[in-house]
């Protein structure tokens, strides 16, 4: 079953192409605080819009003691009221070092281990608001363990505050500028080839 869980991010990614553009930012970076039954983490979150409705989010978080994890998520955004207020959902992969608890069936004691290298699949769903060039979000991010710890499932609630570094309009403007530069370069190259061909024929037929 754990092997099939690796396909979850792919299925979610395919569903993104049916959604409409939502967020008002292209690049946003900031802080994230997470909480679950095991730890309270503090870390960094960075989001980058890669398509009109698809955003990549990278998260690095730690409790600076027993749990440090890295996450890469693909997310889809859809407006609730406007582009400033929307909900999002997605999936991705995670890895890191975590604590783990397991009950010994013979002694009935709880065995607590630390520094377990873990790998898992993340899901995420949340809401966000962009105001005063800042993105405030509240999310729920469950994690399904593939290897490294005994607990199969762990959920985490997170609050993030990210500063908008590049707005959507700026990102689209840069994209159009690069496209125009590429077309111009291709046209110039094609024109030079025609010119060289014409000059070559004239030289061959004086």
Secondary-structure blueprint:
Elements: H1 2-5, H2 8-16, E1 25-35, E2 40-51, E3 54-62, E4 68-82, E5 85-103, E6 110-131, E7 134-140, E8 143-147, E9 153-154, E10 157-167, H3 168-204
Antiparallel strand pairs: 1-2, 1-10, 2-3, 3-4, 4-5, 5-6, 6-7, 6-8, 7-10, 8-9
The structural class is alpha+beta
Overall helicity: 10-25%
User: N-to-C SSE series?
Assistant: HHEEEEEEEEEEH
Average pLDDT works out at 81
The Cα radius of gyration reads 24 Å
CATH topology: Porin
Unreliable parts = 1-7, 14-21
Number of strands: 10
For the record, the CATH class is Mainly Beta
Which features would summarize this protein structure in a list?
alpha+beta, Porin, eight-stranded antiparallel β-barrel, elongated, disordered N terminus, Outer membrane protein with beta-barrel domain, signal
């Amino acid at each position: 079953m754990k092997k099939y869980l690796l396909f979850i991010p792919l299925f979610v990614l395919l569903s993104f192409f049916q959604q409409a553009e939502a967020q008002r930012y292209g690049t946003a970076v900031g802080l994230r605080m997470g909480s679950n039954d095991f730890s309270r983490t503090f870390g960094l979150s960075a989001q980058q819009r890669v398509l009109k409705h698809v955003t990549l989010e990278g998260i690095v978080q730690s409790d600076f003691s027993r749990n440090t994890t890295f996450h890469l998520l693909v997310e889809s955004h859809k407006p609730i009221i406007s582009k400033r207020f929307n909900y999002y959902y997605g999936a991705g992969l995670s890895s890191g070092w975590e604590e783990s608890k397991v009950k010994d069936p013979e002694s009935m004691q709880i065995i607590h281990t630390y520094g377990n290298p873990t790998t898992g699949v993340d899901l995420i769903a949340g809401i966000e608001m962009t105001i005063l060039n800042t993105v405030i979000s509240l999310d729920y991010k469950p994690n399904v363990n593939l290897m490294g710890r005994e607990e199969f499932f762990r959920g985490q609630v997170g609050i993030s505050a990210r500063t908008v570094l590049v707005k959507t309009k700026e990102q689209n403007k840069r994209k159009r500028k690069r496209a125009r530069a590429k077309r111009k370069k291709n046209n110039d190259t094609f024109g030079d080839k025609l010119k060289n061909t014409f000059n070559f024929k004239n030289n061959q037929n004086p």
